[in-house]
Automatic annotation (TrEMBL):
SMART domains assigned: AAA, NIL
UniProt organism field: Micromonospora echinospora
Stretches assigned to the ABC transporter domain: 2-241
The organism's place on the tree of life at top rank: Bacteria
One GO molecular-function entry: ATP binding
Protein name per Swiss-Prot or TrEMBL: D-methionine transport system ATP-binding protein
């Protein structure tokens, strides 16, 4: 669905040129929800805007649904953008229009006749569960309702791809959960592909099949969430499941164990029974992610126990990632 090759974008500043995106390669499969995470200034928003060429890259190629956008003249690019919907952080609604009017505006821009517009607006508002708020103005809507209008508007042209720019960062946790559930449901019902940027780990946990960690304009980690969680050196795994500072526990070996899928079920009970160990869980969590079940546990094992070596061997033999706590 999306193929980005050698993407580079530099902006002039008073202090000299700043490279926001520095030679990024990215492939997003059809039907996938792909997240790009990183701190403010990492280049995430610039990357997203380069995908629909709201920012034209200095170098590289952007291909969406088999069409190389970077090679299109402007008049053809406008048509190609109809296959790409955009969800904004702060909703970007027209305050002088109702919820229905905001959705209709996207169809007006595309030249859809009035009668067809009305039917499509009704369909879209029903899709995002806002039929009863069709005549409400943005000032009369909650944050979650505003974002639902934004999602309905983004779907007006029946796009195959949605770009999401921090779509939940202005929402409270409960509303964020509802919007993430809606987006996941829409990917399944409509066959959508989603490329999103976020700094919220809960978005990655609940929505993303794959993710890239961006720093200083480059990807430092990229791949399926389950694969990255299993990597011993993965910063993403530590961010998704933070275990806190390592406590001082004399006469104990502390290890961090990463679990994915069903691997690791009853790990503590098994170790205690098989190796006669007093195993303590110092910290940890196991959760259901969008693509898999995963988590991390910090275990304290008695240093002098005869079964210690066998316990560590069994953990690794069960397909778990085991590393010294740090």
């Amino acid at each position: 669905m999306i193929r980005i090759e050698g993407l580079r974008k530099t902006f002039p500043t008073r202090g000299g040129p700043v490279t926001a995106v520095d030679g990024v390669d990215l492939t997003v499969a059809e039907g996938q929800v792909f997240g790009v995470v990183g701190r403010s200034g990492a280049g995430k928003s610039t990357l997203l805007r380069c995908v629909n060429l709201l920012e034209r890259p200095d170098e590289g190629r952007v291909t969406v649904a088999g069409v190389e956008l970077t090679g299109l003249p402007e008049r053809h690019l406008r048509r190609a953008r109809q296959d790409i919907g955009m969800i904004h952080q702060h909703f970007a609604l027209l305050h002088s229009r109702t919820a229905a009017g905001n959705v209709s505006f996207a169809l007006e821009v595309m030249g859809v006749p009035r009668r067809k517009r009305a039917a499509r607006v009704e369909e879209l508002l029903d899709l995002v569960d806002l039929t009863d708020r069709a005549d409400a103005y943005p000032a009369q809507l909650s944050g979650g309702q505003k974002q639902r209008v934004g999602i309905a508007r983004a779907l007006a042209s029946r796009p195959r791809l949605l770009l999401s720019d921090e779509a939940t960062s202005a929402l409270d946790p409960d509303t964020t959960g509802a919007i993430l559930t809606l987006l996941r449901d829409l990917t399944r019902r409509l066959g959508l592909t989603i490329l999103l940027i976020t700094h919220e780990m809960d978005v990655v946990k609940r929505l993303c099949d794959a993710v890239a960690v961006m720093r200083d304009g480059r990807f430092v980690e990229s791949g399926p969430v389950a694969d990255l969680v299993n990597r011993p050196d993965s910063q993403l795994a530590r961010d998704l499941f933070p275990l806190g500072p390592v406590p001082t526990m004399p006469d104990h070996v502390l290890v961090d164990v990463t679990l994915t899928g069903r691997a690791g079920d009853d790990v503590v009970a098994t170790l205690a029974r098989r190796h006669d160990l007093d195993v303590r869980i110092v910290a940890g969590a196991v959760e259901q992610l969008a693509a898999t079940r995963a988590g991390r546990l910090r275990l304290a094992l008695p240093e002098a126990a005869p079964g210690l070596a066998g316990a560590l061997h069994d953990l690794r033999g069960a397909g778990l990632t085991v590393e010294a706590a740090r």
